[in-house]
Specification:
alpha/beta, eight-stranded mixed β-sheet, six-stranded mixed β-sheet, 14 helices
């Protein structure tokens, strides 16, 4: 069977359009999380779309800030695009074998049916671990390459937190990686992938790669690209990369995947091996020189609450980031350490979101708006160390959990997270309102509050369960941001994490 269509004329003259199959399979695996990743998690909708097939991919991802949307926008007029399947699941523990085999198998079968092809685009994350494969994306790419053959170029977008591996480099031709954290350039990253894939198809030259793994790990809360030293380092990357000169990117790695290849890397791609090697070494040197500056301070919950109580004022709130209970990094999003601190320190005018507790939300919906309920809020997952908050609450708002995001990062997406409730804490002199949800959602967008009629800017304190993404939509309203070291399933103090599989000699920042 022929695996690549015959190139007869230039793409640019409009007389020939290459056939490119597109698909996506995303999961960020926190091997310390108590929550598994099953096939149902990839099928259902949450803060991201559910499993999407065929032509629906065009409808669902049109104008959305996500790599496959950016790829479509850049390539649609110049290519014949064959959409296959896109699926993702909220970060959690390892992807079970049923889910991995089902999703990867459907994508690969779709590629095979689409042959002959001139190229493939994959919207991947880069930090997937499965029950059977430590390097989930590497194994997936190996299978894709085996099925479609060596003559079809493969380009993949990756998340900023990808744990890139040599197996991934071996089986794909080009990677483009997010350059911002918060991830405001997801669609742009897919657009770069389209530009480079079309260049590779038209030039018909082998793409050379250079891959440099860095010997350190950095925690998520220290990886914000709006701050130094990372802001300066990412400015070293080309605005308009080309394989003729060189195309390069950096991944900061996902420190919660206990695998040998966990950690940052620099990659470069081009038609000339020497140029790729020089570029990768340049970026590697920049990262190594900045290693000692990649840090951030976290404060204990009660100290953070005291700061908030002292400095808070309506209209310019103090934002408290519960960085270690971030569902976007695989945490349970149901810990109560920060909530307890706000109550015990009598913090008034505070709102906290989003705490996942489907049982309490169900009771709130049964009771109705205005009702007082006594519940054990949160603490349902994560073992004995994750205590519930026992108290009385007044139900002040209810929602079905379907709402449009309003911030730049999630532009174009609709959340479908099941019933939600706004609960006012009673029994304390503190004035705290909690947004409780039926499914986990990282509080990275004001719409998490606004869909319940809560305007964050009107409060004195806004507490968010997020590591960095919250900055995209909350930093502009904050008088101050305080990172809180409350217990949670996305730990950010690396020397407290019990790594087993991490390669020897890796430094923990």
């Amino acid at each position: 069977m022929t695996t690549s269509a015959t190139v007869r004329k230039s793409i640019g003259d409009g007389s020939w359009k290459p056939r490119i199959a597109i698909a996506g399979f995303q999961h960020e695996t926190n091997t310390f999380s108590p929550i598994p990743a099953t096939l149902d998690d990839f099928i259902r909708e949450d803060s991201w779309p559910g499993l999407t097939r065929g032509e629906d991919i065009f409808r669902v991802f049109e104008n959305a800030n996500i790599p496959i949307g950016g790829f479509i926008a850049r390539a649609a007029s110049r290519c014949e695009l064959i959409p296959v399947l896109w699926a993702s699941a909220e970060p959690s523990n390892v992807v079970d074998d049923e889910a991995f085999e089902a999703v990867s198998g459907q994508i690969i079968d779709g590629f095979a049916r689409a042959l002959p092809l001139d190229g493939i685009f994959l919207d991947l994350h880069g930090a997937m671990v499965t029950e059977s494969f430590e390097d989930g994306e590497g194994e997936f790419l190996r299978r894709v390459r085996h099925r479609i053959g060596s003559g079809v170029p493969i380009v993949s977008s990756l998340d900023f937190h990808a744990n890139l591996t040599r197996q991934m480099i071996e089986h794909a031709d080009i990677f483009t990686i997010f350059r911002t954290y918060p991830h405001l350039d997801m669609a742009e990253t897919g657009g770069r992938a389209a530009t480079l894939l079309l260049e590779a198809i038209e030039e018909r030259l082998p793409v050379r790669a250079s891959f440099r793994k860095l010997p350190f790990l950095a925690p998520l809360q220290a990886q914000c690209t709006d701050s130094q030293p990372l802001n300066s380092i990412f400015k070293l990357l080309q605005d308009k990369p080309s394989l003729r000169s060189c195309a390069s990117d950096i991944a900061l790695g996902f420190h919660l995947a206990d695998i040998a290849d966990c950690g940052p890397c620099a990659v470069a791609f081009g038609f000339e091996q020497e140029k790729a090697e020089d570029e990768a070494r340049r970026l590697e040197a920049a990262l190594l020189s900045a290693e000692g500056e990649i840090r951030s301070e976290m404060l204990p919950p009660r100290e953070a609450a005291r700061i908030a109580r002292r400095k808070a004022r309506p209209g310019k709130p103090v934002v408290l980031a519960d960085v270690q209970d971030n569902s976007g990094a695989g945490a349970t999003s149901d810990t109560t350490g920060l909530l307890s601190a706000l109550a015990e320190e009598n913090v008034d005018g505070a709102v906290l979101g989003a705490l996942c507790d489907p049982q309490s939300v169900e009771l709130a919906h049964e009771a109705g708006i205005g009702a007082e309920i006594r519940i054990e809020l949160g603490g349902k997952l994560g073992g004995a160390d994750n205590a519930s908050f026992d108290g009385r609450f007044r139900v002040i708002a209810l929602s079905d959990g379907n709402f449009e995001f309003c911030g730049k990062m999630m532009d174009g997406f609709t959340a479908r997270i099941g019933p939600t409730a706004a609960l006012e804490l009673l029994d304390y002199s503190a004035g705290v309102i909690i947004v409780a949800t039926s499914q986990r959602i990282q509080c990275l967008d004001r719409a998490v509050f606004k869909h319940l009629g809560i305007e964050p800017s009107e409060y004195s304190v806004v507490a968010v369960k997020s590591s960095v993404h919250f900055r995209a939509d909350f930093e502009s309203l904050a008088s101050e941001i305080v990172l809180v070291e409350a217990p949670g399933g996305s730990p950010c103090r690396l020397d407290a994490i019990e790594y087993i599989k991490l390669r020897p000699g890796v430094r923990l920042l």
